[in-house]
Amino acid sequence: MAQHNELGKEGEQLAINYLQKKGYKILDKNWRYLKAEVDIIAQKNNTLAVIEVKTRTSDFFGNPQDFVNPKKIKLMVSAINEYVTSKDLDVEVRFDIIAILKNKNETKIEHLEDAFLYF
């Protein structure tokens, strides 16, 4: 497996662990709909958190969250509309990014709630 794929899987597991410690229930991971993939779908109280995980070893080219583009956002919104409808959920939906910088010396996790408001 390519090194960046391994880093991505490791980042997703770090994000899941982080969310569970914060009281989120993980409903799905790597959920697919048409061309979209949602990294993590979690719930806390009556809020469905749709989470894109971005993991990098360095912020030399920018912060991890800077790599979520408008096309990805559009795909995620479409996918989560299908998810909520197909599961007949009555919840508030929020789109988050978990940005992870992981190198040999440290791991930094930043949870950006309602992240798409900033785009």
Give a verbal description of the structure.
The chain is an alpha+beta fold. It has a single domain (3-118), classed as Trna Endonuclease, Chain: A, domain 1 (3-Layer(aba) Sandwich), CATH 3.40.1350. 30% of the residues lie in helices and 38% in strands. The chain contains two helices and five strands; from the N terminus they run αβββαββ. The protein has helices spanning 3-21, 70-86; strands at residues 25-33, 36-44, 47-56, 92-102, 107-112. A five-stranded mixed sheet has the order 1-2-3-4-5. A hairpin with a 2-residue loop joins strand 2 and strand 3 (47-56). The longest helix has 19 residues, at 3-21. The radius of gyration is 14 Å and the shape is globular. The N and C termini lie far apart (32 Å). 26% of the residues are buried.
